[in-house]
Amino acid sequence: MSAAPPATTSFGVVVTCYNYRDFVVEAVDSALAQTRPPKQIVVVDDGSKDGSQDVLRERYGDDARVTLLFCENGGQLVAFQRGLAATDADVVCFLDADDRWEPAHLEKIGALYDARADVDFVFNDIVLFGNETRTIAFADRALDLGYTAIATWALTYWYGAPTSALSLRRALAERCLTLSPQAMATWRLSADNCLVYGASLLGGRKYFLPTATVGYRIHGKNGWWSQRGPVETYRNRLRSRGLIGEYARTAGIDETCLELAKLEYKTKPAPDWAETKRYARLCMRGDAPLWKRVERALSVLGGRKRAR
Predict the structure, then answer these.
(1) Is residue 6 classed exposed, middle or buried when 0-12, 13-18 and 19+ CB atoms within 10 A define those classes?
(2) Taking phi first (over 0 means left), then psi (-120 to 50 degrees means alpha), and beta for anything else, what does residue 156 get?
(3) pLDDT tens digit string along 275-303?
(4) Residue range 11-251 in CATH 3.90.550.10
(5) How confident is the model over 149-194, as pLDDT tens digits?
(6) In whole angstroms, what is the distance from residue 33 CA to residue 232 CA?
(7) Domain regions of the chain by residue span
(8) 125 Cβ partners below 8 Å, 6+ apart?
């Protein structure tokens, strides 16, 4: 049996806080309690008015493991940028101030990053606590999703999870968070979309790893599923299309890339049935002759059967 690869990947944790005095200590303490300690923990307070800054100073002001950044309010996206700029770790993890991690979180995702230098972006399942208790997961097993640029561009598909379940290599995070002034204004909040969509369109290899280590606190109406009326759905989809369009222009992705859907699908070692159907649909799009599109779609469907 070959030896396990050494733990070489360093982690930076960016905790963003805005008026979460009642929760932020639990979030930061959960990062400090990791069985695989991060290289850095950066707490960005985005101009809180509820006493969060006083609590943070009192609790962590003399803790060399924690860097505190007290900033004027700029929104979540700006807080992400400020936190990222204060880190130099290999991989950056983002943690909302109202969430928490189990102690083994970095250990579990770290084992994957150590073993797979080709993986750029790892996201996890989330375990709801507070006003709801259940688990939400992208799939029922770990999945190497390969590359997802074309599926994201064509279908507005979200290969990701909420902020506290996201991690990505630092260089990719920098690219994802480099945006136009218009996008900066539009995505002042819900900035996890910038990480999720950006990582796909900019060529990151994605991996879903269920760990049961990310606690997502439900309080008030902060669950995104509580805001899914027709108007909100339309507006969110429209905003997402604009963001995807910006990343696509940066990456040079357009309609001509649809012919690459079959090749993108082949980057996935063991896709599930949902992903297979998604790519079969993609193969039916584009300007190629109908017979060619059907051939591609059937190849995707047949390829999964052979893989099984």
Answers:
(1) exposed
(2) left
(3) 999 999 999 998 899 999 999 999 999 87
(4) yes
(5) 999 999 999 999 999 999 999 999 999 999 999 999 999 999 999 9
(6) 38
(7) 11-251, 256-307
(8) 135, 136, 137, 138, 161, 165, 210, 211, 212, 214
